[in-house]
Amino acid sequence: MRVGTKAVAGGLLAAALALAGCSNDASPAGGGGEAGAAPTASADCPLASAADPGNSAPPTGVPMATAAPKLPVKDTYTVAFSQNASNNPWRLAETASMREEAEERGHQLTVTDANNEQAKQIQDIKGLIAQKPDALFIAPITEQLGNVVVEAAAAGIPVFLLDRDVDNTVAKPGEQFVTVIVSDFVQQGKRAAWAMAKATGGNAKIIELEGTTGSSPAIDRKKGFDEAITQCPGLEVVVSQSADFTRAEGQSVTETLLQSHPDATAIYAHNDEMALGAIAAVRAAGKVPGSDIQVVSIDGSRDALTAVDAGELFATVESNPRFGPRAFDTMEQYAREGQVPVQLVLEDRLFDKANAAQNIATAY
User: Fold this and answer.
1) Span 118-137, mean pLDDT?
2) How far is CA 62 from the centre of its chain?
3) Is the pLDDT at 6 greater than 50, yes or no?
4) In terms of Cα–Cα distance, which of 157, 73, 107 is closest to 328?
5) What's the pTM value of the predicted model, to 2 decimals?
C-alpha cells in the first residue's frame, strides 16, 4: 500500500525536508486568502464559510529508505530522467527544472519523453536501465509502472519517483525505489472543494474533469474533492469524466458534457490545462465563465493565474512543478547518509482573486 500522508517520523522528515525542500518555490500554506467575490454561503454547507484548509500536516511515521540500491558519494553523477509527457506547461516546467539543476551541479542528465504513452515509458525506462546511470528519476504516467521500477532496482540503480507514485504492492518504498517526492493530491482536492464551495455558496451541479486514468493525481484529487463536498448537500457532481490532463481534451469533453448536462453550474478540473479548455467550451456554449459557470482547478500555471485575475477561473490550487532542486538535494542526501524518508510531501499555495495578479510573473 502507498504510505499515507499522515504517515514519517516528525524530526526525521523535518530534517529531510530542510535538505530536500530548501529551494522550494512554493510559499507556506494558506497563501490564497479569501477567494474572490462569492455568493452568500448556504447554511447547510459549512465548507463555504470555513477558512482555506491549507496544506495537510507533515506526514508522520514514514519509514526511512535503507534497503534500496545504494548511491556512492561522488562529485558528479550520471543521472537519467524518464518524463511521462511534454504536452503541457507543467511537464515542460518540470523537465526544465531538472535540466537546469543538473547543469548547475555538474551532473550529466539524460531525459526521455514517453509522449503520454505508458508502453513507451516502460520501454524508455528499460533503455535507461541498460545505460546504467548512477541514479534514475521517474515521473510515472500511471501507478502501473511498478514492474519496471523493480527491474531498475534489480540492476542496482537507485530510483527516485517524482510527482506520482507507483503501486506499492509491486514496487516497495525504500526497497525497489528510494522515495517518492509528491504534493498531497488528496489535500489539493479538498482545497479545490473549499474553493468550489466559496465560488458557489455551497450549491452547484458540478462537471468533474478527471486527469489521466490510473495516475496518482487523478485518483487522489478526486478522492479529496469527493470527501470534502460531503459537507455540502447542495454540491453535486452530476458527471465525472477523464480529459487526460490536456487543454484540447478539456475543451472537447466539456463541450459534450455541457450538452448532456445543460443545468451544470460549475466545473472542477484536476488540472489547469483542462480548466482552460473548459473555459473555452463554456464561452462556445454562449455562457460566461466565472458567472454562469464557476470553474476551479489545480496546478497554478501562468495562464490559469491570468484567468483567475480576469475572473474566468475562481481559484487554482498550486502543484509546483519545479522539482529540480529538491530532487537533486534528496539524491545527494541519500548518497551522503544512506537513507531518506520513503515519502517527501511538499507544500503548495492557493491562488485566487486576492493574490493571482502579483504571482503571474513568477508562475510557469
Assistant:
1) 98
2) 20
3) no
4) 107
5) 0.88
